[in-house]
């Protein structure tokens, strides 16, 4: 969709003007992966209108392959307006104009298998599933377990406003079909009534990797068997296409295809990490660190994770937030990037947090990722140095000695 960002804080009734930008969970992931040096493709559908022209050109400008984005001659490109406040804040307003949009008309019949390509990773989100019966059918098809499919990454991305009158429990079914699942603790409780990482792992034993994000506190990753170990990365893999109901983008060492909303990522099959599910690693004093989740506490309603799981908790760094949006998509991109590179679980989570911090310290949804060497250096810090990390506006562009500040 085309996103209209407010020119100043305030309610939609009071903001006098807006700046045009691009939006969409899957396209955000595809753009972030491409900016991080991976080959990514986005698969989607937009209207044959000026907004569609702008979206395709803007996403392509990040280096994303948009050749599988289809133009719908009968339906418009979706747009939305939002306020500058945190999405989790009661004052936050978002108004969508996408009923009957080109993307909402996606279905299994509008996405030929060739559009998805020989992707290593296919990245999907739950937003697509909420748009229409056809989009839900598309996601059911793409998350069906079958021989030879790419690694399927699924970001639950529950948006309560999209599920009015519908059952968000379908998101749990879709997540069970994925290989890698990212979900926030708050959205899991709202959608499914599940509380805590261990309860979520109990409900989702099927994915090889489950990442449970807890806003500015951090994230817990569960990984089964070989998914918990670092692997030799394939010769630097590019990312592949993302479907567009929204559509996903992925490192396309074979491109990852994804449905209409966003990006798909390379299939290193890593454990996802926490970069601030709510769009915002905490600024200010860090939250008391959680014990490393080598076993998130079991107890009433919180069964212990499978014994074969590796469990890692990584706290989020402190971030001086400019705009509390875009962090969830950026976290997914950072985690997928590190997965494509074969990094270990802790570093995957840390790269997710760093990419989220890049998004949180700019006004829009998409930040400039740190150079890979700098991100690797920060991800390799010892626990004490990582705990002192503080990132503010411009940190991805400043000199080596300035992006890390201690209180």
Please describe what this structure looks like.
The protein is α/β, with parallel strands linked by helices and 407 residues long. Helix content is 26%, strand content 16%. The strands form five sheets. A six-stranded mixed beta sheet has the order 7-8-9-10-11-14, sandwiched between helices. The chain has a four-stranded mixed beta sheet with strand order 2-1-5-6, covered by helices on one side. A hairpin with a 5-residue loop joins strand 12 (249-250) and strand 13 (256-257). Helix 1 crosses helix 9 and helix 9 runs antiparallel to helix 10 (345-360). The chain is globular. Residues 232-303 and 400-407 have low confidence and may be disordered.
Which structural class do you get from the secondary structure elements? Answer: alpha/beta
Mind summarizing the main beta sheet? 6 strands, mixed
Task: Specify Rg, calculated over alpha carbons.
Answer: 19 Å
Number of helices: 12
- How far the N terminus sits from the C terminus, by CA atoms, comes to 40 Å
Strand residues, percent = 15-25%
Shape: globular
Number of strands: 16
> How do the SSEs run, as a string of H and E?
EEHEHEEEHEHHEHEHHEEEEEEHHHHE
Give the fraction of residues assigned to helices. Answer: 25-40%
| Lateral arrangement of strands in the main beta sheet | 7-8-9-10-11-14
Poorly predicted runs: 232-303, 400-407
Mean pLDDT: 80
